[in-house]
Design brief:
This is Large ribosomal subunit protein bL27. It comes from Candidatus Curtissbacteria bacterium RIFCSPHIGHO2_01_FULL_41_11. One of its GO terms (cellular component) is ribosome. 0% of the residues lie in helices and 38% in strands. A 4-stranded antiparallel sheet has the order 1-3-6-5, with no helix packed on it. A 4-stranded mixed sheet has the order 2-7-8-4, with no helix packed on it. The chain contains no helices and 8 strands. A hairpin with a 2-residue loop joins strand 7 and strand 8.
Amino acid sequence: MAHKKGGGTTTKNRDSAGKRLGVKIYEGQLTKPGNIIVRQRGTRIYAGVGVMIGRDHTIFATSEGSVKFRQKQGKKFVDVI
């Protein structure tokens, strides 16, 4: 007779891969048009001057320049100057 229970499989033991979200180009760094600056879920950071926001809330540069982060009335914005 066995003295230990059988080590069956567990359910709910799966995890998804990380989605690589976050800031990709930091303040002071140079960027070109089309470069992704921030990948995010929802608008945690808003689009300012010289950037646009994509369908999946990705913020990308529309002009060449230096990345600048700022806050206005409690909201975070990113600009390319």
